Amino acid sequence: MEFAEKTAVVTGGSRGIGRAICLALAQRGANVVLCYAGSEAAAQETASACQAAGGKALAVQCDVSDAQQVDGLMKAAIAAFGRIDILVNNAGVTRDGLLMTMKETDFDQVLNANLKGAFLCTKAVARGMIKQHWGRIINLSSVVGLRGNAGQANYAASKAGLLGLTKSTAKELASRGITANAVAPGFIETDMTAALPQKAREAMLPTIPMGRAGSPEDVAQAVCFLAGESAGYITGQVLCVDGGMAV
Ligand code: NAP
Predict the structure, then answer these.
(1) Of 186, 241, 245, nearest to 210 (Cα)?
(2) Cβ contacts of residue 193 below 8 Å, gap of 6+?
(3) Against a cut of 0.70, is the pTM above it?
(4) Is residue 16 in contact with ligand 1, taking CB distance under 6 Å?
(5) pLDDT tens digit at each of 247 positions of the chain
(6) 152 partner at 20 to 30 Å CA-CA among 53, 98, 108, 222?
(7) Ligand 1 centroid vs 155 CA: distance in angstroms?
(8) Which residue CA neighbors atom 46 of ligand 1 most closely?
């Protein structure tokens, strides 16, 4: 029960990687507060699964790109559990398209959800973590943020931006007992990648040295490691969970 007495806020916990992170943290004893954009039934199901795994859990609707809603999310977490120890900025969206034809709104929506959302959530929890002199912030970036990807200028920019946010947060908060790290998944089987055209999926597999897509649980294990006591001297790092894709 590594995370007994610890409270984790996981954004985008209703589905995919976020759901697996919530479950993995709950299985290790954490209280989990998960937020979702619109999938209320899925979010409640994740909360129930966390409770069945032995943890306490709360699902809160919150658009992470809205500062007021983020404040409401963190207030709900404090009201339920008294503190926030771990923040996992996992919520993310794609609006793929080639640069020449990409709509400005598609660029803004992706940057707002993926990058601004992580900034708002980090800002909202930092003061409490400083007071506790303990905190873990983990940002879900992507291999695409390291390498770029045709058709994903907005998404790649948001994920590269998260690396800058992670490293700056790490430097600002290191002396306060708070670590900030990024996890960069490769190709993981979730709703997000299921939406890719079959051709794109087939083209992806030969680029993965391990020859297979990853699972949400593969990513959740890395997040738990970075959230744990044993990763206390690791900060500002990017951990790829990608079957060797970015090597
Ligand atoms: P997913 O299955 O599409 O789930 C996305 C989650 O984010 C959902 O819980 C969704 O809530 C939530 N969300 C989206 N916009 C939000 C907003 N504005 N406010 C609050 N919550 C919001 O995605 P995934 O594949 O699990 O990806 C999770 C993270 O890993 C993302 O940051 C993604 O970029 C990153 N990642 C994924 C892969 C991959 O291969 N799958 C690879 C690299 C990085 P609702 O259910 O309510 O819509």
Answers:
(1) 245
(2) 187, 201, 213
(3) yes
(4) yes
(5) 999 999 999 999 999 999 999 999 999 999 999 999 999 999 999 999 999 999 999 999 999 999 999 999 999 999 999 999 999 999 999 999 999 999 999 999 999 999 999 999 999 999 999 999 999 999 999 999 999 999 999 999 999 999 999 999 999 999 999 999 999 999 999 999 998 888 888 889 999 999 999 999 999 999 999 999 999 999 999 999 999 999 9
(6) 222
(7) 12
(8) 39
